[in-house]
Amino acid sequence: MALAEKAQIFDRDGMRRALTRIAHEIIERNKGTAGVVLIGIRRRGVPLARRLAERIRAIEGQGVEVGVLDITLYRDDLDRLGYQPVVHQTEIPFPVTDKKVVVVDDVIYTGRTVRAAMDAIMDLGRPKAIQLAVLVDRGHRELPIKPDYVGKNVPTSRREIVAVQVEEIDGIDRVVILEERD
Q1: Which fold has domain 13-76+86-158?
Q2: DSSP string, 47-81
């Protein structure tokens, strides 16, 4: 089964504008940055979290801490995977207790990744609140999880894949929809 590019959702400038808007929304909702931390879900949530932190610093004149979360061992499908999962390090060098934690990911689909992230964060402490920022919400939720900050809502079919590419990992900034072709 081959994948073909169906549409481009964001180019570099579109991603930049969406992240800038999300940064403003995070600041507004939290009435500033006091007690706010960002935690990016490994892989592409991490560079997005770092970019949001840069924008927040540029807007507010003060930064927010950024952590890196690996959810591999919190996945609910580990028993179904036919390979040994590769576990990466979680790097959260600050306490999450009593913080407003903004979890950052590239795409929300079923909600299972976010549920795993919340479980992992709760194992580290008791945040004041957990909020969710995603670049793309593609629908098809299986769990009652709704992002607080969304770059763009993109209705998709289950046969489509939303592929986020970031400069830090892929050498380019863009978001495309890929479609399975027989």
Answers
A1: Rossmann fold (3.40.50)
A2: HHHHHHHHHHHHHHSS--EEEEE--GGG-TTGGG-
Contacts of 48 (CB under 8 A, 6+ apart): 19, 40, 104, 105, 106, 133, 135, 166
Burial tier of 24 (Cβ tally within 10 Å: 0-12, 13-18, 19+): middle
Per residue of the chain (182 residues), what is the pLDDT tens digit?
Answer: 689 999 999 999 999 999 999 999 999 999 999 999 999 999 999 999 999 999 999 999 999 999 999 998 887 665 565 556 666 789 999 999 999 999 999 999 999 999 999 999 999 999 999 999 999 999 999 999 999 999 999 999 999 999 999 999 999 999 999 998 87
Question: Where do the structural domains in the chain lie, given as residue ranges?
Answer: 13-76+86-158
Q: Residue 2 has which token pair?
A: 């081959």
Distance CA 123, CA 108 (A): 22
Cα-based torsion angle of the residue sequence 100, 175, 158, 181 in order, rounded to the nearest 10 degrees: -160
Strand partners, 130: 101
Helix (H, G, I), strand (E, B), or coil: what is residue 31? coil
Torsion sign (Cα): 104, 109, 113, 114: positive
Q: Can you tell me the distance from the alpha carbon of 138 to that of 38, in angstroms, rounded to the nearest whole number?
A: 22
